Amino acid sequence: MRRNTLVMVMLAVIALPAIAEEEKAGKGKAKKGGRNVATQILKQLADVDLTDEQTKKIKAAGKVASVEMAKIRDEAGITGELMKKRAEAAKSLADSDKKGKQRNDAINEAAGLTKPQAEAMTKMNAVRSKFTRSVVAMLTDAQKEKLPKQLQRAARPEKGKKPNKKKAAA
Q1: Quick one: how far is CA 72 from the chain centroid?
Q2: Region of 72 on the Ramachandran plot (φ > 0 left; ψ -120 to 50 alpha; else beta)
Q3: What is the pLDDT of residues 35-52, one digit of tens each?
Q4: Rounded to a whole number, what is the largest CA-CA distance in the chain?
């Protein structure tokens, strides 16, 4: 009996570091997957009742958008640390009087982004916006009614983008 207990304790001591190592590896993968825009938007669309086909299309489009955004991020030298600083700056300026471009410029300045990095962030936001609009376009009218507030803006037509009458007439 004592020998069995000793063997069990030894196995637990040996197996415990291996289990902890697996958990660490799993957490690292989850963080890396957090940059996938499809994963983020699918969480927001949890209550919309997506079909399997819609989910597959969103994941495919998300991979393309994520690759494009990663390329922009890498070319501009934007690190995860800079992204965190920018997110913190955005939170601190959330209650400010500034709106739109002025607010965005203030956030970039507070985060310490260079002009090329700020331009890259603008490009990344454009890619993300385009992706979000394409996802909303995939939804049925019934699903669009269930959209969370964050995504309802993407369902509306863009401001100031009126059809070009000259091109339509040609």
Answers
A1: 14
A2: alpha
A3: 688 898 999 888 888 999
A4: 92
